[in-house]
Amino acid sequence: MRRAARDVTGSAYTSASTVEAIAKYTALPPAIVARSPAYSFHRDMRVDEATLMDMQRLFLNLELLSYKTLLPVSSLVVDP
Description:
Layout (H helix, E strand, L loop, with lengths): L1 H6 L8 H11 L3 H6 L13 H13 L11 H4 L4
C-alpha cells in the first residue's frame, strides 16, 4: 500500500502509466484523469478523514452514491 501511494504522489500522479491505470479502472477519459487534482497521502498511510467526508459530500451532491445521507467515517474505513 505504501509503495502504491508513493507511486502516485506528486508529479508521479500525472505520469502516463498512472493516468492510464486510473483511466482504465475508473472508466474516465485519460484527459480528465490527467487534469484532476491528485489525492495526497499521509506518510503513515492514515486516512484523511476530512477529505474523505468532503469527497462523500461531493459524490452525494452529484448523485453518484446509492445512499442519500453521509455515512460516518467509522463505517467507511476499517482500522486494522
